[in-house]
Amino acid sequence: MLTALGVTAGWVPGRPVLRDVELTVREGEVLGLQGPSGCGKSTLARVLALLHRPDAGTVCIDGTTVPGFRHAAPRALRTRIGVLFQQPRLSVDPRLTLRQVIAEPLLANGLRGQVRDRLPGLVETVGLTAELLTRRAHAVSDGQLQRACLARALALRPRYLICDEMTTMLDASSTATLVHAVQEYRRRERAGVLAISHDDTLLGHWADRIEQLPGPAAASAQGP
Amino acid sequence: MTSGPPGPVRAVNARLAVSDLSVRFRLPDATVHAVTDASFEVGSGQCVALVGESGCGKSVMAGALLGLLPGNAEVTGTAVLADPAGDTDLLAASETVLARQIRGRRVGLVPQSPAAHLTPVHTVRRHLVDVLGAVGPERAGRAARHAEAERVAAAVGLPVTALDHYPHELSGGMAQRTVTALALAGRPWLILADEPTTGLDAPLVRRTLDELRRLTDAGHAVLLVTHDLDAAARIADTVLVMYAGRIVETGAVDRVLHEPRHPYTRGLLAALPRNGFHPLPGLPPQLSALPPGCAFAARCPQVGDDCVRRPDLWPRDGHPVACHRPC
């Protein structure tokens, strides 16, 4: 289980966006997370992905309490979580080809030898073609780039996948393809998925259960 | 709403007629066929939606109409803007004509990602006053421009308190209204809205769309470029479905979205969560390597021998569709 316990977090000292939030993503399930804009959905996603240190509270991964965040997070825990962001264009290095984007987590973890074996499977899972792998980010569409980001997120076989508004920028067809790819991975690896979206219909079809974050007014008297 | 939309546009009987618009990008080793033989019309009081997957050429079309494409673009065809100011072919017009008579004055652009189109160091008021200085009535004094800025802001529902905010202090909705106000400042009758709802949350999407519909009903003509079929269904009168740079189906919004004839339109609709969430197989073809026949054939469930010839767009039982084997 991926658990947030009593998490209080924010970006301005003394003005937390999240107050005392509890959330549990179980193995093999899709937990949908809803809430009005500004209520801290993305902040919670970053805390759970160990990318942002909360002011208070802890994150537990499969029973282990995470001792640190960002660079202080142990590699073994950090790599158990994959993340997808809303804007694929802002989350890839424009100098890399899609092949390099997808292989990056393997290289960063000293697994260069696995690239040749793992890459074709990853590429097939997300439905990219060999020709696209030689291109850089500017030469592909948002939908194609987000597919590459999904392949990258799955490269280290994470136990948990956090999808923060993964499909907001995408058309209906790309959305369906990506969600199906995530679902297939979840079934195959029994991974837990946190799906953050403001699209109620999408979550209704995708999530096994849905949790609601209260609006910013309820979470903080001052509001962001 | 007490103050109407800017300008006496209701009386204008204006029309944009696009005919055989094609856009090619010459690259060192390839030619990108971004838009091919697109023809359509949009008149005052009408909202036309151009829908399709990302990378199908929708935004290139909008860019071509305003002369905003990069230098290696080759544009052919005509796009005649006909209004009381005269007839102008947007594709043949010089940069001077486009800059001084068209952009902002007869055609307004509501861009994608509004926050990215605002200057971070200026307030909303300064943005509006500057734009009015460029496209507003000539010889308007400073006081007149400030009054006009507040009127334009009020017309799109931007509260006076927001005028003194900087872009980073605006919520997504306020930023959206700001760029809409800027697009309307020069009282254009034609509004090009390029993915105006991408990245906004659901209530904001509905508000933005309803605002565009209100402008349409007030006499503006709106060309809505979007990948969101629900957005098109909500406000458009006519839909153009684009695939791989070509318009493959067009007609009244109810016909096209409820009785689609092209397998691609049907596939797009089936990909919506409420319609079963079935993804289209495969990827759209590269616009630099289009097949000689139907571009959709590789992903089409109804593909047959005749699909090696390219189908033309012509009416079959109701509305025009480019398919040898319509549904």
From TrEMBL, chain A:
- SMART domains under this entry? AAA
Residue span(s) of domain ABC transporter: 2-221
Q: Which UniProt keywords apply?
A: ATP-binding, Nucleotide-binding, Transport
GO molecular function, one example?
ATP binding
Spell out the InterPro entries in the cross-references. Answer: AAA+_ATPase, ABC_transp_ATP-bind, ABC_transporter-like_ATP-bd, P-loop_NTPase
Query: Which family does the UniProt entry place this protein in?
Result: Belongs to the ABC transporter superfamily.
Q: Which PANTHER family match?
A: D,D-DIPEPTIDE TRANSPORT ATP-BINDING PROTEIN DDPF-RELATED (PTHR43776:SF7), TRANSPORT ATP-BINDING PROTEIN (PTHR43776)
Give the protein name, as stated in the record. Answer: ATP-binding cassette domain-containing protein
Q: Which organism is it from?
A: Polymorphospora lycopeni
